[in-house]
Structure prediction request, 258 residues.
Amino acid sequence: MPAKNHIDLVVKTLNVLEALALSEHGKALKEIAAEVGLVKSSVFRILFTLKQAGYVEQPETNGVYRLTLKTSGLSRRNSERMGFATVARPHLTRLRDELDESVALAERRAQSVVLIDVLETSHPLRLTFHIGNDCPIHATAMGKAVAAFLSARELAALLGKPELPQYTERTNTKVRDLKADLARVHKMGYAINDEETVSGAVIIGAPIFDSQGDVCGALSVNTPTARCSAARKKKLIAAVIDVGRRISDDLSDIGFVR
Prediction:
């Protein structure tokens, strides 16, 4: 059925729009035709129709074509509708179901990293997090996953007071050690909270980036240490990194900016 419902003209029109989207100053008819692999007469008719609809403009007669603000408005409105949590939710649901472990999503704010979504596992032995909780950047997996990709100035703003609170005997409370840990997170692409906030729990987090490549949040999967063998931990790490990349790709596709 997909082949029967396929509309070739729609694909050609989208190819023309994509060709124009790659140019800051616009392109000539001949250049567009060469890029999309169509004869100039076909591309001209597509461009003419798009001009009439207000999605393409040609400021000068026989000049270059370029996209209008009406075209960019489509993606902007979709980005506003498709917020960070909305885009991430389907990925989090699949991750929770595939691993049968609780997952969470945190958003980067000006001076904090805040939990904005939680999907719990069906296991009776599980951690419970609450939306709105702060994710300290020195102790939590999501906090560290965000902090590792900040500039020195941004990191200082999130650190706040020089004293780092201790939650368990494994909490890292020295700024020097924290920076070394964040360097490792930046290199490896994931962060681990190994009983640093809750004894008996391992939490693995990965960063999420917006369409401009800036870190905008993080996701995590958490499990009791009793269920976290070396092999299991390796699987959780790979899954969290993969989902973080997938969410980042979706945010990039809709032009999301934090």
